[in-house]
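Re: Re: token formats

Sure, here are both.
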Amino acid sequence: MRYSNMFSEKDLIGSWTLLSWQGFKNGTPAGFPMGEDAQGQIIYSAEGRMSGFLMRADFARATRGTPAQYNTSLAYGGTFRVEGDEVIHDVIYATIPHWIGTPLVRKIERKGKNILLKTAPETSNSGAVHEHLLLWQRVGG
């Protein structure tokens, strides 16, 4: 019998559009890292590759980036694998340098036809514990 909280790579293959991204600090809602209308896409391939891109909806279109713009988008990619109710993104490239070469673990939860990815808790230098919830909708589904 297959339980609803168990996933396989096949469950994720395809393209997903971001519906919402909410941050939490010490278990309390802490706002929306890139605004309530953040945009994004994550793609999982049958070959075990993944890539994701997130940005503010008001990301300025410019021929040259400014330092402030670099805080309004995020991208990374690499390979992925599923273990139970977790997807592990093994990061090969990223706009956040210290993510490169590290596994990013995300809890997966079904929300109807959508999926919710929950980041692993991270403790900041100040001792605060940060987590993020990202709700994704399958493209065309």
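Second one below.
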Amino acid sequence: MSVTTSRRRFLTGAGAGAAVAGGAALGLAPGPAVALEAEEATRSRSTGIGPSTVRPDDPRYGDLARGWNGRFVGTPDYVRVAGTTAHVESALAEAAAAGSRLAVRSGGHCLENFVCDPAVRIVLDVSQMQGISYDAGRRAVVVEPGATLRQVYKTLYTAWGVTIPGGTCPSVGAGGHIQGGGYGPLARRHGVVPDHLYGVEVVTLDRSGTPRTVVATREPGDPNRELWWAHTGGGGGNFGVVTKYFLRSTGTVPANPDPSRLLPRPPVQTRTVAYALPWSGLNQERFSRLLRGYLEWFAANSAPDSPFARLNAEFWGLHTGSSPAVTINVSVDPSEQDADSLLAAFRADVVDPVGVTPTVSERLLPWLQSTNASGYADTGAVVQRRNKAKGSYLRASYSDEQLATTYRWLTATELRAPLAGVLMSGFGGRSNAVGVDDTAVPQRDSVVKVLHTVHWDNPAVDDTHMSWVREFYRDVHRATGGVPELDGIADGSYINYADVDLADPAWNTSGTPWYRLYYKHSYERLQAVKGRWDPRNFFRHTLSVTPPS
């Protein structure tokens, strides 16, 4: 199995509900909405696309009624394709007047059935809102929600030599990725994507059902600042429809408004070394030594000022029925003077002590090419395999029992799946330099993000594959009620890895509600945001923020 191809299949990182937004300031009533006429300069310009209404008799319907996860196919009355903010406003007004449930899709990578829910009668498709530009007045780069990560990386880098520290799946849409707390290989060096979010343009719906387009920024005096805050990790499907993201790194306010100075600069090249350790040489003791070494390495080398924050790695523990080897991919900027020593230290601490000779492969790519290394074309055809995924944050290494459990589920259980296993991505570094209340991402001392997942093709074996990943995850966390505990070895989960099982007492017996696992102490603040900007609870799904009681 190709390591790079596997990465694309494995990590979706997509935001719940695509471009549906979160946010608002604490208080009893909304602050003054930004007048649409006064803000005309910020609104989406006409692209000549939309509004278009796609009904079941339209040949496009079969494609537009589904997303990336092949398990879910929607049956909406229609799909409304929007090209501008005005189109979004009209769609919301129409849905509110009709009393119809509406969901929003940008990249289509939602892991759960939030958009394809049978209760959803209207799908608002913002995938064609793909503009990327520079707003000189705000001194911010503007990204619309339908732009894919591939488009974002290419345009930011080609035009200005900058980037955002986002994910590695090129067809994920910016709409859900950014507001869900998106991260990727550069997060250890530059933080998560919301750490670079200056503002948002959002279409909300007031109590009367009237759309209101507002702009919210992180400026201390902005009356809508909480609307910005909730987009820094609050996840999609909650408070409105994002039509623009304004990106500018914190503290970056140049006197000369030069977009090349507003966001992080990526490395010129990426050097990746892959260590493949064959399952045939890994018994339980050796596997545990490998995984423990990997997790302990990140626990020891993930402070914001650690020299090793410049190194990132991914641990691919794929089931023996999916891959003949466990693989660790390690990447650095080769222009760093100590790049060789960083790689050597990692290997000495993690790989060599296992006592199994790995197959080593190395690749050096220009940075922009490395972002497309999976080779997947961004065709817009997001129909993929059926899958189920479950996430967690880690603050420390698994216990001996958890290591043994992981080995057992990857080797001893009978499973034949194109891809099944656990992905552990390096985290921490500059991601942990931000305060727990500064954004809506409260897990700011975690060192690894974990994704348990399985992909398959045949719906007749849904139960087998769903049971495998659910029971695997529950068994790993059996000491804490089947879910990742807070402030222990684990620290809850990541909302872009949406998992409705966390809200199901059959799978979560911890007594900790799902919203604590995702949002920790920030949930009440998000509820206040909900009460202010979505008092009708118009934007909702299985894991959406609820209004305050």
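The chain has 14 helices and 17 strands. Confidence is low (pLDDT under 50) at residues 1-42, 375-383.
- S.
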